[in-house]
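Internal tracking record. Fields below are filled automatically when a chain is submitted to the structure queue. Please do not edit lines marked as system-generated. If the sequence contains nonstandard residues, flag them in the REMARKS field before resubmitting.
Queue: standard
Priority: normal
Entity type: single polypeptide chain
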Amino acid sequence: MEFVRKAGNLYCEGTNLWLQLSSYRLPSPKVKTENHTPGGGRMELAVPVGSIEALTLAFNTISANPNLHGGMGLALAQAKLWTIYELLVDERSNTKRERIVTMRGIYQSAEADEMKGRGLKGYQHTITSITDYEDVIEGYGIVARFNFWRNEWAGYGIEADNQDNSILRIAG
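SYSTEM-GENERATED OUTPUT FOLLOWS
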């Protein structure tokens, strides 16, 4: 078993969330499609339209950290850099690798856990409007990279060319 995710940590522009982080869910790029049933056809097909859905990072903490809550973004210019460090292990050889996932997005919401008696309560946080995303595994390279501003993407074993940008006169 290679690339087993063993541990992770989250930073937001220098704020280390290690001691308060209880869980996180990485963004899951999903291909956008439109359904099509040809005239007289018996089967519908989800046709890829050449883009992905908006990315979202979700994480939970056991704190009311003012560094997070005070960083709500109301405009794309207020996007913050979020970095996740993960420890990946090859269980057969015990080889350890570093995975770094970086993204720039808006701190959109913090939903408080219900306070009921004693216990660890915190917040469910959501990062949206992710304009830059990069996932890199040590010794493997770029797994995925997306950039909204330059209309670029790469990864998942597919070499993306800039022909679309050239035709549309989009400068990077």
